[in-house]
Specification:
The protein is of the alpha/beta class. Helices cover 51% and strands 12% of the residues. The chain contains 19 helices and 9 strands. It has a 9-stranded mixed beta sheet, with helices on both faces. Helix 16 links the parallel strand 4 and strand 5. It is elongated and about 90 Å long. The N and C termini lie far apart (64 Å).
């Protein structure tokens, strides 16, 4: 397309819209592409929107969108006079010469549509400002309207199975050549990767546990393991400031007791060497931490888009689901709110084609049962999480429930922890065992440290 073309010229725009409609009328070859790439509201004037809808309706009924049939259809809807009669439909039809280069006309129509949507968003924000609406509400409305604007033309994702099977066989062949069974982002835990084949693109993963089970520590271990394998990682920490988070990472990487790092006590020369070596290792990791408190899901989406572009992010961690702020100021209850957030996070994972691992709390119902092993029904605030998630994992440590009320844990102890995969949309479920080294906040495969 000519980059110097004035897309804001009303004459160019109207001619382009007529060309698009004429091609949709006359070219069965590209008719479907136009009808899937554009919507009626992408056209700037009502007659063109009505003609587009008529073409679409006729197409859905397996009828050729001829001038006569379009006119009859609009007459039945009492819209023929509004579009300018059969004469105007004929004028639009006369714009067809060839369907070559139809993408250029579609792009002109689509880009102008984006501009009009932006104008409407700006006008709505201006209206709310003039009405003295709360600034937080105005900000959320503005953010929602901007993010709702479709910025890329919808492509046809339908594909013949004979083409898809070629991609599948190639993927199997590539896996065989690499000698690895991991085709996603590796977790770094052998038994877990054997079940999941790594975290898959577009997957929404829930990691849930009761407080003090080590959710954040396990998520940080997963993040470090991914980054050590040259993957880009973003970690949204809604609960903990980044300094505390990095201190945990440093403890895990350098194998220095976390309490020593917090208090700066008993730091011998050899310990300092481990700290500096650990810090150098961390500097090489492509991990981005965002510790903005009270983020809403739209802000997470906006930030993730930018981070994926700027830092080549391959996987996202969010700590944790119940701390994500409401998108609407007047949601009827928290359960519906969390359900909406959960659905949106799944949508973001699909849109950005990266796995999102989101931590979640469990309800206190676990504590009331004799058997403390968590169930999917224990997920706090929303049963919708069960439906949206591709993988649901729980952390369960028997020792957590066996300690006496005032007993202090021996930090040097290694605790056997169960990672329970209760839901796996594309594979097996099961339980894997890992060791938790509490003094370092580090999880290891049992084979490495029994």
């Amino acid at each position: 397309m000519n980059e110097n073309l004035d897309l804001n010229s009303q004459t160019v725009l109207l001619d382009s819209e007529k060309a698009v409609l004429a091609i949709a009328m006359h070219s069965p070859k590209v008719n479907f592409e136009i009808l899937t790439q554009l919507e009626a509201n992408d056209f700037s004037i009502e007659p063109h929107r009505m003609i587009f809808e008529a073409i679409r309706d006729l197409n859905q009924n397996s009828q050729n969108p001829t001038i006569t049939k379009i006119a009859d259809h609009l007459q039945q809807k009492k819209q023929l006079e509004q579009v300018g009669g059969i004469e105007y439909i004929g004028e639009v039809s006369s714009y067809f010469y060839t369907d070559e280069g139809f993408e250029d006309y579609v792009e002109i129509v689509f880009k102008n549509s984006i501009g009009r949507q932006l104008d409407r968003a700006v006008n709505e924000v201006k209206r709310l400002r003039e009405a003295k609406s709360p600034i937080d509400e105005i900000f959320l409305v503005a953010q929602q309207k901007i993010l709702d604007i479709k910025t890329e033309i919808q492509k046809d994702d339908a594909q013949a199975i004979k083409e898809t099977v070629v991609d599948v066989v190639k993927k199997i062949h590539d896996l065989q050549n690499t000698g690895s069974s991991i085709n996603g982002v590796a977790s770094g835990f052998k038994d877990l990767d054997n079940i999941t084949n790594g975290w898959q693109k577009g997957d929404f993963v829930i990691l849930a546990a009761r407080p003090s089970m080590g959710k954040t520590a396990f998520a940080l271990n997963l993040a470090i393991n991914a980054a050590e394998r040259k993957k880009g990682v973003v970690f949204f920490s809604l609960e903990m400031p980044k300094e505390q988070l990095v201190q945990r990472v440093l403890s895990s990487v350098s194998a220095v007791d976390s309490s020593s790092l917090r208090t700066a006590q008993n730091l011998t020369e050899s310990v300092w060497k481990r700290i500096t070596n650990g810090a150098e290792q961390i500097k090489k990791l492509n991990i981005v931490i965002d510790d903005s408190p009270g983020l809403n899901v739209m802000q997470i989406q906006s930030k993730l888009r930018k981070l994926k572009r700027d830092f080549e992010i391959d996987i996202c961690f969010i700590d944790y689901l119940q701390l994500i702020s409401s998108m609407q100021s007047r949601m009827d209850n928290r359960q519906n709110e969390v359900a909406a957030i959960s659905r949106h996070l799944k949508k973001i994972a699909r849109e950005l084609n990266i796995p999102i691992v989101c931590l979640s709390q469990l309800s206190r119902s676990v504590e009331k049962r004799e058997e403390k092993v968590p169930l999917m029904s224990d997920l706090r605030d929303s049963g919708a999480i069960e439906q949206d998630a591709d993988i649901i994992m729980f952390l369960y440590r028997k020792a957590y429930y066996e300690k006496k009320e005032y007993e202090v844990f021996d930090d040097s102890q290694n605790d056997e922890t169960d990672v329970i995969i209760s839901k796996h949309r594309n594979g097996a479920t099961g339980v894997i065992k890992v060791n938790f080294l509490r003094n370092y906040g580090k999880f290891t495969d049992r084979s490495k440290n029994s």
